[in-house]
Write a structure and sequence with these properties.
With 387 residues, the chain is an alpha/beta fold. It has a single domain, classed as P-loop containing nucleotide triphosphate hydrolases (Rossmann fold, 3-Layer(aba) Sandwich), CATH 3.40.50.300. 32% of the residues lie in helices and 23% in strands. It has 12 helices and 13 strands. The strands form 2 sheets. Strands 7-8-9-4-10-11-13-12 form an 8-stranded mixed beta sheet, sandwiched between helices. It has a 5-stranded antiparallel beta sheet with strand order 1-6-5-2-3. β5 and β6 form a beta hairpin. α4 packs across α5 and α5 crosses α7. The chain is globular and about 65 Å long. 38% of the residues are buried. Bound molecules: adenosine-5'-diphosphate, iron/sulfur cluster and magnesium ion. Adenosine-5'-diphosphate (ADP) binds next to β2, β3 and α2. The site of magnesium ion has 4 residues, from α2.
């Protein structure tokens, strides 16, 4: 793209050039999503059969008037079967856009999955067999098969996900009707009540008959969790599930999620900006920064042997009893502009351990243990070879 003449402003010519380039890319990607495709085009294999989800080199962009926002810029991580994976990072680093890509809920035409694979172990109810689908390659018309039954999502603000004009019971039953062949009114209600009980609601019949506004925030989030469990999904994505709740209720919901992990035969992908939540819940941790994964490993590795200067900084900035809660991310400096990402480590301007070689290419992901990976020049061979 042409050099900007006025810092911070785009000329009319530049704006037109961006619009033209955007329109071309959007047209191509929309056509790909809306194509008719045989299953053979998106069936694939897992790299590791112990995983339920493998995100591999994912790029999800927003084509805006100012340019392309690379919200997810080459993200790779995996979710093993029956494990909880926590994804952590500052607000705006691409955690939600990654998970919305898995659900194929990215708002088009501006937002598009542009590159990469999202391999998911899909259970085919009709044949009873397991298949691996690449969600990124599935045509839009097939996506309904994934949601609810295979993957379900718990959002931050339950009030926006519940319909105010229907009772909780009607909304829970509806999920069974959509996804279960031959469901009756009685069987749907029985399942709804069972799930309400499972999420610790003491008077399920009463909640079943209530409208969303009659319940507290914590109760509504329990209802959302019950809803996400109705179809026995293999993967639950919980995006900031406790952020909108006050501290005591937060603790209760986390207890519930932890408890559920042992009761359900599935995996949880837990997204949060709060390292404390991750510490309580996760088996594996993925640390994201500016649209990329900068470190990932087991919870033990990330908490007891963090390698990336950003991960170390995050841990130092964990709130304590006497902090005000606003200083969770008190690492000085800003995340670079998402439209014009630099061609070097994105953390460089904020990094205390920056060296001469950090001005070079973006650091490659280096493996420091069978399960621990870090993208930082401090660990790349060139640096360690020279001491
Ligand atoms: N609809 C949109 N249009 C343009 N940019 C967007 C849109 N939605 C998200 N983004 C960009 O994607 C980045 C990642 O967002 P998100 O995944 O929601 O962050 P978080 O890590 O807080 O969940 C944001 O910084 C924002 O710049
Ligand atoms: S690559 Fe360099 S600048 Fe980036 S985090 Fe590592 S040490 Fe810091
Ligand atoms: Mg988010």
């Amino acid at each position: 793209m042409a050099e900007k003449k006025n810092k911070g402003y785009l000329s009319g010519r530049e704006i037109r050039a961006i619009a033209k380039a955007n329109a071309k890319e959007i047209k191509r990607l929309e056509a790909y999503k809306n194509r008719k495709a045989d299953e053979s085009e998106f069936i694939t294999e897992m790299k590791n059969d112990a995983n339920i989800l493998e995100i591999d080199g994912l790029h999800t962009y927003f084509f805006t008037e100012q340019g392309v926002v690379k919200a997810v810029n080459g993200v790779s991580y995996e979710v093993p079967k029956n494990a909880t994976v926590g994804v952590v990072g500052e607000s705006g680093c691409g955690k939600s856009v990654t998970s919305m890509s898995v659900m194929r809920l990215i708002q088009g035409p501006q937002g598009q999955i542009c590159e990469g694979s999202i391999r998911f172990k899909f259970h085919d109810d009709e044949t009873g067999e397991d298949k691996v689908y690449d969600i990124a390659k599935m045509p839009q018309s097939e996506i309904y098969r994934l949601r609810g039954k295979q993957i379900s999502m718990i959002f931050q603000e339950p009030m926006t996900s519940l319909n105010p004009v229907f009772t909780i019971g009607e909304q829970l039953d509806e999920v069974t009707f959509i996804h279960t062949k031959g469901a009756t009114k009685e069987s749907a209600k029985a399942r709804s009540l069972e799930m309400l009980e499972l999420v610790g609601i003491a008077m399920p019949e009463r909640v079943y008959k209530s409208f969303p506004h009659e319940l507290s925030g914590g109760m509504r989030q329990r209802v959302m969790i019950a809803m996400s469990l109705i179809c026995n999904p293999r993967l639950i994505i919980a995006d900031e599930p406790t952020t909108a709740l006050d501290v005591t209720i937060q603790a209760q919901i986390l207890d519930l999620l932890r408890d559920l992990k042992t009761k359900i035969d599935g995996s949880i992908l837990l997204i949060t900006h709060d390292l404390g939540v991750i510490a309580e819940m996760a088996d594996y941790v993925v640390v994201m920064y500016a649209g990329r994964v900068i470190e990932r490993g087991t919870a033990d590795e990330i908490f007891h042997d963090p390698r990336h200067p950003y991960t170390k900084g995050l841990q130092k900035s964990k709130p304590t009893l006497d902090s005000d809660g606003e200083t969770l991310f008190n690492i000085p400096g800003n995340v670079p502009n998402p439209v014009n990402m630099p061609n070097h480590c994105y953390f460089k301007e904020r990094c205390h351990e920056c060296r001469a070689c950090c001005s070079g290419e973006y650091p490659k992901m280096v493996q420091v243990s069978p399960t621990h990976f870090v993208a930082c020049h401090l660990y790349s061979e060139e640096v360690s070879d020279n001491g």
